[in-house]
Trehalose 6-phosphate synthase
Amino acid sequence: MSRLIVISNRVAVPKKGASANQGGLAVALQSALREHGGLWFGWSGETCETFDGTIHRAEGDGVNTATIDLEEQDIDEYYNGFANRTLWPLFHYRIDLTEFERDFEGGYQRVNDRFADTVMPLVEEPDLVWVHDYHLIPLGQKLRRRGMRNRIGFFLHTPWPPTRLLTALPSHRKLVDSLFAYDVVGFHTEDWLDSFQHYVTSMMGGTVDGDIVSAGGRTIRAIVAPIGIDTAEFEAAARSDEANFARDRMYMSATGRSLMVGVDRLDYSKGLRERFLGYDRFLASHPDRRGLTSFLQIAPPSREKVDTYQEIRADLDALSGRINGEYADIDWTPIRYVNRGYPREELAGIYRAAHIALVTPLRDGMNLVAKEYVAAQDPNDPGVLVLSVFAGAAAQMREAVLVNPYSAEEMADAIVTALAMPREERIRRWQALIDGVRREDVFWWCRLFLDTLEDASE
Ligand code: GDG
């Protein structure tokens, strides 16, 4: 079996027995690394005065990691710049929030060069190399230019935008060209793959034949590989003492009301504003139901150095305050809006206590919260998943109550439907959902991608 080299912006350093505090992706990649041997390479999250290529090596729980520090300017231009002010909004269809600055692109290319230079000597001839996400699109090409002949795969965790949006990026062609240095490119859904194929055929004169995509004399395999969660682990987490304790706290605070929950990084792509407005509409149009529901939104802040993230935070502070001011009573708060994270087990208990999960992003590559919510439910009395049609997860999770998050009325209707849903129907839908979440878990996803990469011709 070939060794595996995982490369991503950040590296999750494994600690023994701490898997419950890590995301499913980290758990899956660590288990693939344990199986294959090899290492996980990325940015340490630390700053250095002058970049000198120093590599910090570590080993934890059978996984080797190698990280580098970056300069302040690198972080500004690459991470807070091109990755999170240009590509992230553009890939989430938010051209209105997309910033186009040549310096950002310069920093992006420079950091990808730094990654290529430092990881190159760590890779051996037969290793499989797996690059992750929009931060590192050009890395494969940079490795090829340095002579790497290994099989290299790339997985995009975000949506791939429609051609007519992507072409707003001045360097769109260069970006897509660089993807052709990989052997395998993976997306979460057919939709994202379709958009990619459309760009290749309409803008590059390329061809598509099944999963073989060719352009400019290069041929790659472009596949759909929907990510899952570590379902078994999450089901167990939802039954832990910590989860039971969190669930009981939820029940006690609810005093018999129906609980709704949302859990999202504080990000404009997650549709939090529209979700609050949907709940507002529900309260406005159902006066008889006021006081009978309680909505908990957990939203730990992210990317705080980027202005749009500061703006969304201020916007949601105001909106939740306005809704509470309008509808709250001496013994009832309609929205509990919490800007901090909870340990994974507590989160599982919170999901389990909630009668409804509102997972309503405006655009999302996949969305793992939808899958975690399903995995945490009590099989005898499961809650209802309200899921945006614009989440990649909606392609797999057809038995959820699907909504258009832009419509406050549809969101309000979905809440009414979910609140009224009879137990038999909840069980039937949940059973279909959990079957999928169990079958297509994160280990299945990892195998699907790596098997395809292993089969790719060298
Ligand atoms: C990107 C893509 C794609 C959140 N709050 C807490 C907490 N979380 C955890 C959730 C979940 C994860 O963070 C979020 O995953 P998502 O998939 O929802 O979203 P992104 O962070 O945007 O991830 C996305 C994913 O990559 C994988 O490919 O699905 O579309 O955007 O696991 O549980 N975890 C804890 N406390 C919190 O308060 N412990």
